[in-house]
Amino acid sequence: MIIAKVVGSVVSTSKAEKLQGKKMLIVQPLDMERIELDGKPLVSIDTVGSGVGEIVMVVGGSSARQTLITKDTPVDSAIVGVIDHIEIEGETTFKAHEGGS
């Protein structure tokens, strides 16, 4: 599982049948201590209703096909949570704004 920031979206009118109706977002991995972009962006299927600007949990590989939305779907990355708070060794490195990110 990685922590990433949703930085964009992908629209594809022509795609595999099992991807029809799936929300595709571009996520970029983050350094969890500095909350800075750290890695190449990738396309991930949103399973939790996240949006651009939010900090999210992303799973890859076969784990990405373990949600109700992605079961038996040709995906290798899925957003499975929106992060509210990150604490490392007693220090808060990220806290979403009150009432959402």
Strand order of the largest sheet: 1-2-4-6-5
Cα-based radius of gyration, to the nearest Å: 14 Å
| SSE run | EEEEEEEE
**What is the name of the CATH topology?**
OB fold (Dihydrolipoamide Acetyltransferase, E2P)
CATH class reads Mainly Beta
Note down, in words, how this protein is organized.
By secondary structure, the protein is mostly beta strands. The protein has one domain: OB fold (Dihydrolipoamide Acetyltransferase, E2P), CATH 2.40.50. Helix content is 0%, strand content 45%. It is built from no helices and 8 strands. The protein has a 5-stranded mixed barrel. Strands 7-8 form a two-stranded antiparallel sheet. The two termini are 20 Å apart. The model has no long low-confidence stretch (mean pLDDT 93).
What are the defining features of this structure?
101 residues; OB fold (Dihydrolipoamide Acetyltransferase, E2P); 8 strands; mainly beta
Concise account of the structure shown:
The chain is built from no helices and eight strands. The chain is mainly beta. It has a single domain (2-95), classed as Beta Barrel (OB fold (Dihydrolipoamide Acetyltransferase, E2P)), CATH 2.40.50.220.
